Amino acid sequence: MARVFIVCGKICCGKSSYAEVLRKTHKAVVLSVDEITLALFGQDAGEKLDEYVARTEEYLYQKSLDILSCGIDVILDWGFWTRKEREYAREFYASRHIEHEFHYIKIDDEEWRRRLQKRNREVLEHRLTAYYVDDGLAAKFKSIFEEPDDSELTR
User: Fold this and answer.
1) Does the pLDDT of residue 31 top 90, yes or no?
2) For the segment 106-151, what is each residue's pLDDT rounded down to a tens digit?
């Protein structure tokens, strides 16, 4: 039976790289909010980004059901920064009797800042398609992020 891998972690902690490893290992489909919103809006979503992200997440939850029904594993690559988001995902799949696993990518603050700087440099040099994370956005994400405890994680 197909299952869902839910990748949790701060922005720019290595979730997408980890999701790619899972994709190859399990022959799974990666569903990424950033991939869709960047393709549609680039860096220009502005104040509507949170709305677009919420709509994209809703769409991807439904799309994941289509993919799972074909017997293909799915990887959700969009952060799950709050306990509420993780509880929603857990309930969404558990209520449908779909196997799901949470994978948390933990990173310390020093490494996180280093990765953000590298990422921003690559975005500005057009070597990476990702969101540029300025100090204000980094502070917003840091204040939103709720580190999962062991009871929430599969791995």
Assistant:
1) yes
2) 999 999 999 999 999 999 999 999 989 999 889 988 899 999 988 8
Nearest to 22 by CA among 47, 44, 3: 3
Rounded Cα distance, 49 and 34, in Å: 10
Closest CA to 59 of 37, 26, 28, 86: 37
- pTM across the whole model: 0.91
Give the CA distances from residue 4 to residues 15, 90, 95, 119, in Å, rounded to whole numbers and listed in that order.
Answer: 15, 10, 13, 27
Residues whose CB falls within 8 Å of the CB of residue 79, separated by 6 or more in sequence, listed in order: 7, 8, 9, 10, 11, 15, 33, 85
**Based on the structure, what is the number of domains in the chain?**
1
Q: Give the pLDDT score at 53.
A: 93
Could you list the residue range(s) of the whole structural domain that residue 117 is in? 3-152
Q: Using CA atoms, how far apart are residues 22 and 19, in angstroms rounded to an integer? A: 5
CATH number at residue 17: 3.40.50.300
